[in-house]
Amino acid sequence: MRKLKILIAIILTVCLFQFCTKENSALNTFSTVLNLPSSPLNYLVTYPTHVAIALAAADNTPTNNRLTNEGATLGRVLFYDKHLSQNNTISCASCHKPELSFDDNVALSSGFNGGKTSRNSMSLINLRFYQNGRMFWDERAGSLEAQVLQPIQNHVEMGLTLNELEAKVKGLDYYPDLFLKAFGSSAIDSTKISKAIAQYVRSIITYQSKYDLVKEEKASFTTSEAKGEQIFLNAGGPTCASCHTPPMFITSNPRQGFSLADNNDIGIRGSNNFKSGSLRNVMNRTNLFHNGSVLSVQAMLNAGAPGTGSRPIPQHSIAPQDIQDMLNFLNTLTDETIFTDPKFSNPFK
């Protein structure tokens, strides 16, 4: 009996040693590659009332891909991982930079082999509020889940097939544990990859700008900012708010007005209209519209969209001196916390 107890103790010790070694090995691999906390960061935010009401009315999150902290964490790692391109040089974040409100600062972004994209990189903030859920400038993707896989497969942008994508992700030893936590299984496939990235992108919501503080009655607009808001809401034929509806300054019913007509690009189903992105944080972005031809908001207000017949703001029943009021108001839409919030940052060391 004593010998049996000793044998059992030895077996248990060996098993425990092997388990701990395996666990420590996984943790060591994980920690040498990624800078993630032991518990996931919080993506399940309680938004201010005006934002929460807008989200309830427009949320494009499908029932089979609800946001979770673990899913968004996995999505964040995938979003920044350059292994998702053919030659390990391009990630989603290469063309959607967090410091630029998840946009790019050039008209056309560069792909894995130096080629240029066919359209401008659109900012990813507040996409969850695009009610119809269709993505890309021409709305060709039926959902965010469908959209996130297309740049990976694009022969200019990232250059992988879905089979190649799955094989590369399976070959990286920091992913099985992340997939297990996100989906309850360490099995990896392109469907789970798309769901995780979509969860992360849907979490990128701006709600801590001066505009939000004003709507929460925690701050006040200056006289100029208040005047700019009224110009935004009321001036012109279709107003600015027609295509950029407060409080998220986005609508999924784009129509021609300041939409940039383009003889070389017919837009959504040949309508010459394009997806209407959120104007939040627009003041820290450049190269606007689908082809990136308008360098800044101020350039657009002063000159209109060049070469298209769209009129500058002063010709829309607004005095030239009111442009500064509009710019001052648009500045209140900037939420700088997304530039510094760890849950949106690059998790790789």
What would your notes on this structure say?
By secondary structure, this protein is mostly helical. The protein has 3 domains: 1-33; 49-206, Orthogonal Bundle (Cytochrome Bc1 Complex, Chain D, domain 2), CATH 1.10.760; 210-331, Cytochrome c-like domain (Cytochrome Bc1 Complex, Chain D, domain 2, Orthogonal Bundle). The chain is 40% helix and 0% strand. The protein has 15 helices and no strands. Helix 3 (69-80) packs across helix 9 (190-202) and helix 11 packs across helix 14.
Strand and helix map with partners:
Layout: H1 2-33, H2 49-58, H3 69-80, H4 92-95, H5 144-147, H6 149-153, H7 162-170, H8 175-183, H9 190-202, H10 210-215, H11 223-234, H12 240-243, H13 297-303, H14 323-331, H15 337-340
Tell me, what is the CATH class of the largest domain? Mainly Alpha
Give the biggest sheet: none
Distance between the termini: 53 Å
- Number of distinct beta strands: 0
Q: What overall geometry do the principal axes of the alpha carbons give?
A: globular
Average pLDDT confidence is 88
Question: What's the architecture of the largest domain, going by CATH?
Answer: Orthogonal Bundle
Stretches where pLDDT is under 50 for at least 5 consecutive residues are: 10-28
Which structural class matches the secondary elements?
Answer: mainly alpha
How many structural domains? 3
CATH H level, superfamily name of the largest domain: Cytochrome c-like domain
User: Fraction of residues in helices?
Assistant: 40-55%
Beta percentage is: under 5%
CATH topology (fold) name of the largest domain: Cytochrome Bc1 Complex, Chain D, domain 2
